[in-house]
Design brief:
156 residues; alpha+beta; Pnp Oxidase, Chain A; globular
Amino acid sequence: MKTVLHTDWEEIEGVIRSCGVCHVGMAGTDGTPYVLPMNFGYHEGVVYLHSAQEGRSVSVLERNPKVCLVFSGDYRLVYQHPEVACSYRMRSKSVIGWGEVVFVEDMDEKVEALNILMKQYSDRTFAYSDPAVRNVKVWKVVLETVSCKEFGAPHK
């Protein structure tokens, strides 16, 4: 089994869109890693996330907006020989992306971002009250660098 690097943007976006959760890594104020599983929306190289207006992640990002995003899924246990433990591996695909969080403040842009986020999980159309939009913190991350790998791929 081998690890395959994918560079085709359609393949990369396919992995991102197939995921239900994005893990967001950031560096705490003392350099301690901090990782959160979050719901997300994706559109044309941009990831949208949302949170409360205040909290640990917002405080961390106000000091250092750089993040690492991890999308992974399609897990299957595979092996080369059923009786050789070292031949077992989890087959999966993942995308790791890096960028900086920009907090979206414009109400119309927030609604657009929330629609993109909801489209990740539903084909329904949603309406949002002004207080709800004002009270949510919307994060925008332009993916500056991306790596996509498939693990446990069979040799051809």
